[in-house]
Fold this protein.
Amino acid sequence: MNSIIAKGLLIPFIGTTLGSACVLFMKKEMSLRLQKSLSGFAAGIMMAASIWSLLIPSMNQASELGLEKLGFIPAVIGFCFGMLFLLLLDVITPHMHLNETIEGPKTGLSKTAMMILAVTIHNIPEGMAVGILYAGWYTGAVPISESAALALALGIAIQNFPEGAIISMPLHSKGISKIKACWYGVLTGIVEPIAGLFTILLSRFIIPLLPYLLSFAAGAMIYVVIEELVPDMADNKSEKHSNIGTIMFMTGFSLMMILDVALG
């Protein structure tokens, strides 16, 4: 495999790993203020990445395939399927918001496993999104630059850093050892390079479907923002920090927008 692609697929996983490793240096439970900040920042990153790196390229590619003014059709179809796919997963798999209390005995892993499973499943579309962009760049079938693919990989890595911390740190605060909590956080991110690699291996078959797949990944990522990250950043348990999530959303959105435009 092209070394550039291999590195690109690993970048988001590295972000998750570094975020999960924060638990090794934690001395106390993560504060509500920090949870809101990380959730808001991650939400802004994912929202901007979904628009500039996925939805807009989806419509541009559809137009180049001959749909012209109807280029929005694949974007709408893929976006809706992405949202509905994640909605279905939430119905048939365990579901838990990142800032919910893990109940039960400290040594029990039932609800811990539920949270890890939910986050792991939600990470799959992110890996697919990176794989789709790198497949488009490598094959030359779509006007996607290496820098644009790298921008998305970096954006997701930045988003994965707080996500890894949000997973591992609360686990330790509920009685799980630091090493295990870090390992569980890392495991949630390992599916991303796997999903990206699988997507690239199928690239010769999916090129005609790229406009749909790009928007599908966008819909899945935006679902995570709406269903998981926004409720966490807007949690009103403490009115004192009610605005920090919004400010961090603005920061994350702006950063990802700059990355995509500057590198794309």
